[in-house]
Amino acid sequence: MSDNLYAQMVQKWSMPVEMPFKLNGETVILPMVVLSGRELYEAKQKAEADTRASYGKDIPKKDEISEWDQKFNDQLAYWTIFYSVRQPDDINKKLFPTKEAVMESLTSDQAGILSNSYMTVQLNQPWLIHLDNDDP
């Protein structure tokens, strides 16, 4: 067993993901990491705050028809991309400096593609790929 078990536990697991854009005609592949529990919690909290802010004082009530879920999911996708896409040479450094930079850099379609890529990364974690979904 390693002397620094905690350091091994918190080490980011990443997977190379093809970005939905090209630079100078070249395919861009960057690491995407699985969010820690804290990062996921923060992403959800910030997505909710951004969704609330988008409504101003007219936040819909739970029983009212609204676009709340769609707006929340869009914000969560941007926050997830902010937290998960990393620098090509250092997975400990985020690629985007802010969530707003994600929104300015990507179209909504590109963000949707990366959001789907994040689900693929989650499902391909080494400790999950050996699970048998048919085993109750």
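The record above closes out task 2.4. Task 2.5 opens with a second protein, given below.
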Amino acid sequence: MKKRLYQTSPYFNKEIQMYGCLFISLYYWSPVSHSYSELNAIWDSLKDAKAINSDCVIVDYAKVLSALGIDADYREGHWAPDTPVAENQFAVGEFYWKTAHFSPVSRNKKLIYDVKPDSSTIRYGTLRTLRIFTWRNK
């Protein structure tokens, strides 16, 4: 099983440490293992390619998924927490309490793990929306 990574790791660049929760949540679903330095380089290349904008927001999910080795398509939109997640899909939850924070969630919308350990947003917040992705070969 792949090691769970945390965005607060000192091995990540400062942007990932501050804004990389969605990126690290997507990486959770990757079948490919990458080192911290490889993930930093992937982040930088995605920023250069404008797949992650200057505000560190993912704007081209296809490029991000491909760079992380994830064979899936983004189901465009921010979905309500009660939206069903099919067997051939996976989801990342957007939690909210004072600010937004992303972490991987199961098909039944349970937190798999918090990519920012013990974050207040997970502890006190609620699941606001889902980003849903469909596996291509499942």
